[in-house]
Write a structure and sequence with these properties.
alpha+beta; five-stranded antiparallel beta sheet; 12 strands; globular
């Protein structure tokens, strides 16, 4: 095994310079909970690690302005327990609580969490070449298509990939129209989260809009009066920190019993965090009841494309979303 060099950066500029000096075989590492897994599986094989866990100011949590701002180095546990987040944006707190164990939340960063790679078993267990995977080896094929696809996506799939986007936190951020702030060799830029995650198309190995040497520096979330009426509901095979089979992030602005505005995203069913625009449009202006919620949820899955073993996700996803809509609207079943 080749030796791995290690550098700890004190600030973002120093980290970018270290990355440029190290070259293409470099990786940034913060909490490391995902990168270490991928290294052990042989999927990631960096020659250089640049530690950005303690960058100056990276752990900022600022809820005072017209946006919530979370430094990329803020720990999941700290953001989830922030008083304003818990009170005004339960959708965010709940997505973090349900994402991982307390031990992982104490170590993992909210910026690093955005870059989780899929848990598709063919991607994670095929580095020895037994299973083709277009994410791991572009152009090799997709063993999941026609294979064991129970946990695969039903929204946003292509003929090259059906892998599910694994996160919880990114789903909640997608519902709230967050923006990802990045800094790299060419300077700073901000990317709407809806554009940060890429559909697989013919290039499933390209997953994020992030360039070589770029670092996620922060996450900006516009404040909304729909935040208080919000929730993140997750359905999984086991209750103890498993990945979602289906999840829903819902925030509603209510006018009495009528939905004035709906913000909705889905997890566990899409190849990226999935904004459910059809469900939002269906709900807006409606008096909320179970039938309305279920009709809206079914609209979100109108374009679903199931495989051999995952058709159940269409019904499960719709019912999960309907439950989340009712919960967010204060009509808990």
């Amino acid at each position: 095994m080749k030796a791995i060099s290690y550098v700890r950066a004190r600030n973002v500029g120093e980290a970018i310079e270290a990355f440029a000096a190290a070259g293409d075989d470099a990786r940034y590492i913060a909490g490391g909970t995902n990168l270490y897994d991928l290294m052990k599986l042989g999927i990631e094989q960096p020659r250089h690690l640049i530690d950005i866990a303690t960058l100056e100011g990276a752990d900022t949590i600022d809820t005072s302005g017209d946006h919530l701002f979370f430094g990329a180095g803020a720990l999941m546990a700290d953001v989830a327990e922030d008083a304003v987040v818990k009170r005004e944006y339960p959708i965010l707190a709940e997505s973090l609580w349900k994402a991982a164990s307390q031990q992982l939340r104490n170590m993992a960063t909210v910026g690093g969490n955005l870059l989780q790679r899929t848990r598709c078993p063919y991607f994670r267990n095929g580095a020895n070449g037994i299973y083709p995977c277009n994410k791991r080896a572009p152009g090799s094929g997709c063993a999941a298509i026609g294979g064991l696809d129970r946990t695969q996506a039903v929204l946003g799939v292509s003929d090259a990939c059906t892998a599910v986007s694994p996160g919880d936190w990114p789903v909640a951020l997608t519902a709230l129209d967050a923006a990802i702030e990045l800094r790299g060799p060419a300077g700073m830029r901000s990317v709407p989260i809806a554009e940060f995650y890429l559909l697989p198309g013919k290039t499933p190995h390209l997953e994020f809009d992030i360039g070589p040497g770029e670092i996620i520096t922060g996450i900006s979330v516009p404040k909304t009066d729909a935040g208080r009426n919000s929730t993140y509901l997750k359905v999984r095979d086991r209750q103890s920190y498993a990945f979602a089979l289906a999840s829903a992030a819902v925030a509603l602005k209510m006018d009495g019993g009528r939905v004035a505005r709906a913000l909705i995203a889905l997890g566990g069913v899409g190849t990226r965090p999935w904004r459910a625009g059809a469900a939002e449009r269906h709900l807006t202006g409606q008096t909320l009841d179970r039938a309305v919620a279920l009709d809206a949820a079914k609209a979100a899955f109108a374009d679903a494309r199931a495989g051999k073993h995952n058709a159940f996700k269409v019904e499960l996803g719709a019912r999960t979303l309907a439950d989340a809509i009712m919960n967010a609207g204060g009509k808990i079943q």
